[in-house]
Amino acid sequence: MSVARFDFSWGDPAYHQETLENLKTAIKTTKKLCAVMLDTVGAEMQVVNKAETTVSLQADGQVVLTPDRGQDATSELLPINFDGLAKSVKKGDTIFIGQYLFTGSETTSVWLEVSEVRGQDVVCTIKNTATLAGSLFTLHASQIHIDLPTLTEKDKEVISTWGVKNKIDFLSLSYTRHAEDVRQAREFLSKLGDLSQTQIFAKIENVEGLTHFDEILQEADGIILSRGSDAILLGAETLRGLYPVETISTVGRICSEAEKVFNQDLYFKKTVKHVGEPMTHLESIASSAVRAAIKVKASVIICFTSSGRAARLIAKYRPTMPVLSVVIPRLKTNQLKWSFSGAFEARQSLIVRGLFPMLADPRHPAESTSATNESILKVALDHGKAMGIIKSHDRVVVCQKLGDASVVKIIELED
Questions:
Q1: Beta strand pairing status for 77-79 and 62-66?
Q2: Which residues pair with 181 in a beta bridge?
Q3: Mean pLDDT of 401-408
Q4: Checking phi first, is residue 101 left (phi over 0); if not, alpha (psi -120 to 50) or beta?
Q5: Cis bond before residue 227 (omega within 30° of 0)
Q6: Contact by Cβ (8 Å): 310, 407
Q7: pTM of the predicted model as reported, rounded to 2 decimal places
Q8: How far, in whole angstroms, is CA 186 from its chain's centroid?
Q9: pLDDT tens digits, residue range 181-194?
Q10: What EC number is given for this enzyme (predicted)?
Q11: Quick check: bond before 244 cis, omega within 30?
Q12: CA-CA distance, 176 to 149, in Å (whole number)?
């Protein structure tokens, strides 16, 4: 696992803190980096089941969705957290209720068809027999605008307490619908000081977000689409079953099988063409490093970086070999104390496909001398050998800055 996602749609901060402490223990034991992502609740429509009773719904029967949250959830009546549903749907619309996943043979999620709008209530025909269990279920109606804030008061409270305390690397912004949603979230994070470096990933989960995709892409640090992209997001599939470990190892095998048949050459050419000319300085260096690595059949690309940007650009060209991103810490001050940056940048690059970050020793002088670079390179090569991705007589492509120049060099390892 590269990034641990803490989904605040479920559980309280104490529950998530316990999970995080387990993660910290695992990081220490395995000596492997793992980043932390806080996933917001956002503008999520929910069925509220205060009494946590099991609700059985029969196909062809009827059920009423009501904004009256004082009511208990029953087989005939489901209270929801959104007052505007009746104004937003019409007869014939479909509504999905469950825990995210629907396979077609599902018995824990239900499809409804709107048969009548009665005041603020929505009367629905049940399309499949199902049993809903738990304290809340999500409700999806794809084409409608939900008049709920993207960053809810609950989200803000969790971010400013749990998020700040644990210095989260990523904020996953659920139900992002406009670029303005991302701007507002970034403004909120920057006021919290400790989270000014936290990256925002916009989750595109409805038609509204899809319509404004291009502008959201400009504003966000990353995009989450259910499911695929640089990483595979594990959610309800692993949460709900009895075999989480087997499920995750199966997903891992699917990933490696997909990697085997991925046409890297074609992708590289397409990406170069898409970027076009003239390329920026960094883009040119990144694509050259990948081209050289392909041509000489290098086992690994080693990239020296301080912000992580150079390594991310190399990964953008999807090289077939792993990219060791050596993050060089930078000394910075807030006028009161000196500190090293680098840990954030190293952890944040874990979310990018093919990047394996390591943090260089901050005791090395900050200026780039050839002796310093050689000693850091030796550490990186030893790290690669220990990981089992570099062996004797392998070729390695190194991408680094020497003074003002950026250099791509090929080295061949001896015994």
A1: parallel
A2: none
A3: 82
A4: beta
A5: yes
A6: no
A7: 0.84
A8: 16
A9: 999 999 999 999 78
A10: 2.7.1.40
A11: no
A12: 10
Which residue do the tokens 């049993």 mark? Answer: 131
Question: Per CATH, which fold does 46-140 belong to?
Answer: M1 Pyruvate Kinase; Domain 3 (2.40.33)
Q: At what angle do helices 309-316 and 281-295 cross, to 10 degrees?
A: 50
pLDDT of residue 105: 56
Place of tokens 């599902």: 106
Task: For 393-403, write each residue's pLDDT tens digit.
Answer: 999 999 988 77
- What CA–CA distance (Å, rounded) separates 222 from 217? 7
Q: How far apart are CA 8 and CA 260, in angstroms?
A: 35
On average, the pLDDT of the chain sits at 89
The domain limits of the chain are 3-44+148-226, 46-140, 264-412
- The token pair at 180 is 């303005």
Q: Which of 78, 208, 90, 87 is nearest to 142 (CA)?
A: 208
DSSP helix/strand/coil, 3: strand
The length of the chain, given as a count of residues: 415
Q: Are 172 and 42 in contact (CB under 8 A)?
A: no
Which SS3 state, helix, strand or coil, does residue 134 take?
coil
Beta bridge partners of 57: 130
Non-local (6+) Cβ contacts of 283 within 8 A are: 275, 313
Query: Contact 95/126 with Cβ under 8 angstroms?
Result: no
195-212 residue pLDDT tens: 999 999 999 988 889 999
Q: Which CATH superfamily is domain 264-412 in?
A: Pyruvate kinase, C-terminal domain (3.40.1380.20)
Separation between Cα atoms, residue 84 and residue 135, nearest integer Å? 22
pLDDT grade for 364, boundaries at 50, 70 and 90: low
pLDDT in tens, 296-332: 999 999 999 988 899 999 999 999 999 999 998 888 8
